[in-house]
Write a structure and sequence with these properties.
The chain has 269 residues and is of the alpha/beta class. The chain folds into 2 domains: 4-104, 2-Layer Sandwich (60s Ribosomal Protein L30, Chain: A); 111-265, 3-Layer(aba) Sandwich (Alpha/beta knot). It has helices at residues 24-34, 42-50, 63-67, 69-72, 84-91, 111-115, 130-142, 160-166, 184-190, 229-234, 252-265, and strands at 4-6, 36-40, 55-60, 79-81, 99-104, 120-124, 147-150, 175-177, 194-198, 205-206, 216-220, 237-240. The chain has a 7-stranded parallel beta sheet with strand order 8-7-6-11-9-12-10. A 5-stranded mixed beta sheet has the order 1-4-3-5-2. Strand 7, helix 8 and strand 8 form a beta-alpha-beta unit.
Length: 269
């Protein structure tokens, strides 16, 4: 374990990885350029380290050094310790769980390798809200989905907010991006998946009425526009989650939870 280093200035350049974490545009650019991402909180940091992501450094309030001692003793990286007020000044928000870690990204696996042993997958088209993406990954892990596939314009699962909302599930659920998005439906079908498109359309079938005994892909679109015409017409079945007529639709994350449960634990599975 490296020695903890006390930091007394928010302008210390050694803390550059942790600056302006609330600025999504700046952070997305910075993290992509330097191949890093941030994990917040003891539990999430533990899960990131356990998943094998290389640690660049850590920044934490003094009281968290002891709490994370068993993790830190195996790391030979800078451990910066600062008052919570200084951590807040650097990051731009109050770090409720008192600890941050900067970690290196790993190359994403190919779509083919992610699908190889998968039986049930989620496919997200242009879900660009980090909170929704994080919640969907948490649902995928909770209900035993095998993988998540993302469109090129989906939000980054390794953005801090997505990681936090997922409670680290983004580290345990395999995922990949389908770069040739137009060819995605054919790729899934050639891999033997029944493709179910989630939509609130009145002529769709209640998801509980669809047999999902084989390889199944659940398609989810963005909150505003839903699935594109290409993916909607390419689906084998258009399905919906039955809800009260007084409500137009569910949030995409809530929809994913119900749909995942039905295909993994419901009567048709």
């Amino acid at each position: 374990m490296a020695d903890a280093v006390s930091v007394g200035s928010a302008d210390d350049p050694r803390l550059d990885d942790y600056r302006s974490l609330r600025d999504v545009t700046l952070r997305t650019s910075l993290e992509a350029e330097h191949g890093l991402f941030l994990a917040e909180g003891e539990k999430v940091i533990r899960r990131a380290v356990a998943a094998g992501y290389p640690v660049r450094s850590l920044l934490m309030a003094p009281r968290w050094v002891e709490s994370l001692a068993d993790v830190l003793e195996h790391l030979d990286v800078p451990i910066y310790v600062a008052p919570e007020s200084l951590v807040e000044s650097v990051s731009g928000f109050h770090v409720h769980r008192g600890a941050l870690a900067s970690l290196r990204r790993r190359p994403l696996p190919s779509v083919e390798s992610v699908l190889a042993d998968a039986r049930r997958v989620l496919v997200l088209e242009d879900v660009n809200d980090h909170t929704n993406v994080g919640a969907i990954f948490r649902n995928a892990a909770a209900f035993g989905m095998d993988a998540v596939l993302l469109s090129p314009r989906c939000a980054d699962p390794l953005y801090r907010r997505a990681i936090k909302v997922s409670m680290g599930a983004v580290f345990s659920v395999p995922y990949a991006r389908i770069e040739d998005w137009y060819a995605g439906p054919d790729l899934l079908r050639e891999s033997g998946f029944q493709v179910l498109a989630l939509t609130p359309a009145k002529d769709s079938t209640a998801i509980g009425e669809v047999s999902a005994t084989g390889r199944t892909a659940l398609l989810l679109g963005s909150e505003g526009h839903g699935l594109s015409h290409r993916w909607m017409v390419a689906a084998d079945v258009r399905v919906h989650v039955p809800i009260s007529a007084q409500i137009d639709s569910l949030n995409v994350a809530a929809t994913s939870a119900v749909a995942c449960y039905v295909v993994t634990h419901g009567p048709a599975s």
